[in-house]
Design a protein that fits this description.
The protein has about 475 residues and is mostly helical. The protein is built from 19 helices and 2 strands.
């Protein structure tokens, strides 16, 4: 659904110019929008990274658990969540394509501490290392022994080392996610051949013709978590700005990539402002090509990979767990699923399920630590430490290890139940999405030239997301208050 508008020759000069506030940050530099590469497949990746990092709690834990309890009748919620997030991602990318600035930096131009608010919320959502503990739990099922807490601590330390020693962080993350997606694809193909039976296909048909909203069985907290983490969620969506900039999309090509302060050779420019382009005919023609490519890249990678994965992991859970009274609201249901697969298909399939699940959750944990630290380091440097000699790469280094250290403290304190931690994180993510969906509409309706602003259709979807995530946040708070008092 790419925008195809051309410049309106009847628009006023003010409508056809950028309007980036300069009260909180310096005025942007003016440069031409670069030409999209002739071989655009070479820059496919940010949507795949977004999908790969998002293939975590939602795809391996929340949605399969829901399918084990109520069947496939709520899968429509995953589709709605992913589609709304695609629109969110594209509004985040719109601003960065046009300015080279991240969405958080754009928020700071309109309110000097908005970026700090979202960075803190993202940290709060990800302080609980639910993905690392989930990966650790699946490793204990795979090997039949081990303490998930100590394994999770080891996973966090490995993630910290990987992220801070990679010469170019995005390149390393993209390669890790590519391997993960290939492994999950293998699991999907084998599940279709060996594990998924007729009753599950019949249930899938019922999910299409008789969708339900099973709040009585699941509760608002779990349902909000599932919708918010259907794909990405929370701060991960905001990080699309950083990932497309590191990949060289649009005006982001003018901004150096984030590198390791230990092994990297280049660092992000500490004095770089945002960039704008003259909205003339040549630049607008290049914009339309960039915008079309960015939409297709997100639709084919982020939306496609996420929906297919949620669908088949949910079908696999339905085929193995639906109607089993032993399945509880704990990570241990994945052990039951693996054992059931061993009895249905063979021992090898259960071990493969646990191995791919453990690796998938490990890669997701690495991506989560990356985007949490990346968002905060970019925001702190661009807003509060612009003139400091402290580089963004060094800030990223310390933020990564700070998040790792806090996660270890959480585990040592005994908070090791992944599903509970994931629901808390997901509720925070949903609240964030409620706030920044409104801010994105406001910013992209005012800061950009009329020719490239958000369209009415997309504004309508943003309004829907704003109201939906706001309502879910309120109902979740009410639900939790009732259940605890």
């Amino acid at each position: 659904m790419a925008d195809t508008r051309s410049a309106d020759h009847h628009s006023s000069p003010a409508q056809e110019s950028f309007n980036l506030p300069t009260k909180n940050l310096p005025a942007p530099q003016v440069r031409d929008l670069p030409e999209p590469p002739s071989q655009t497949w070479r820059i496919v990746g940010p949507g795949m990274v977004g999908a790969g990092v998002g293939l975590a709690s939602g795809e391996f834990i929340l949605w399969p658990y829901i399918s084990s309890q109520v069947g496939l009748v709520f899968l429509w919620g995953a589709v709605v969540g992913v589609v709304v997030q695609w629109f969110l991602n594209m509004e985040i990318e719109r601003y960065t394509l046009a300015t080279g600035e991240t969405a958080l930096t754009g928020f700071n131009r309109f309110g000097k501490h908005w970026g700090l608010f979202f960075a803190i919320m993202t940290y709060f959502a990800n302080l609980w290392p639910g993905w690392a503990t989930s990966s650790a739990s699946m490793l204990t099922y795979l090997f039949g022994a081990g303490d998930p807490r100590w394994i999770a601590i080891g996973i966090l330390l490995v993630i910290g080392a990987i992220l801070t020693l990679a010469p170019v962080v995005y390149v390393m993350l993209e390669r890790l996610i590519f391997v993960k997606i290939a492994a999950v694809a293998l699991l999907v193909v084998l599940a279709l051949i060996f594990a998924i039976r007729g009753k599950t296909y019949s249930a899938l048909g019922d999910a299409v013709t008789q969708p339900q909203f099973p709040v009585d069985q699941l509760g608002f907290a779990l349902m909000m978590g599932a919708i918010a983490y259907a794909g990405a969620g929370g701060g991960q969506n905001l990080c699309q700005s950083n990932w497309i900039r590191d990949k060289g999309f649009g005006m982001g090509v003018h901004v150096p990539r984030l590198t390791s302060p230990v092994t990297g050779e280049e660092e992000a420019d500490p004095t770089a402002n945002g960039y704008t382009f003259p909205p003339d005919q040549a630049n607008l023609a290049r914009w339309r090509r960039w915008w079309k490519f960015a939409n297709l890249e997100q639709a084919m990678t982020f939306v496609g990979i996420t929906v297919v994965t949620i669908l088949f992991t949910s079908m696999l859970a339905h085929a193995t767990l639906f109607g089993n009274p032993a399945v509880q609201n704990k990570i241990s249901f994945l052990k039951i699923e693996g054992v059931t697969l061993q009895s249905l298909v063979g021992g090898w399939f259960g071990y493969l399920f646990w191995a791919i699940g453990a690796f998938s959750l490990f890669a997701a944990a690495a991506g989560i630590v990356d985007y949490t630290s990346r968002l905060a380091s970019d925001m702190i440097k661009s807003r509060y430490l612009r003139t400091s000699k402290v580089t963004e790469s060094k800030l990223y280094f310390w933020l990564v290890w700070g998040l790792v250290a806090f996660g270890i403290l959480v585990l040592l304190a005994g908070l090791t139940q992944p599903l509970v931690l994931l629901v808390i994180s997901a509720c925070t993510a949903g609240t964030m999405m409620f706030v920044y969906s409104g801010l994105l509409w406001w910013m992209n309706s005012r800061a950009l030239p009329r020719s490239i602003r958000i369209t009415p259709l997309r504004a309508g979807v943003m309004l829907f997301g704003f109201l939906a995530f706001g309502a879910l946040a309120v109902f979740t708070i009410i639900d939790q208050v009732k259940s605890n008092f």
